[in-house]
Amino acid sequence: MSILVGNGLTQWFGSEVALESVDLAIDAGEHMAVLGENGAGKTTLLRILATAARPTSGRLEIMGLDALRERRRLRRRIGFVAHAPGLYPALSATENLEFFCTLHGVSRTRVAEALTMVGLGEVASRPAGRLSRGMQQRLAIGRAILHDPKLLVLDEPDASLGSDAAELLASVMRDRTVVLATHDHPLANKLCQRTLVLRHGRSVGTPTRLHLVQ
Question: Rounded to whole angstroms, how far apart are CA atoms 197 and 209?
Answer without folding.
Answer: 11
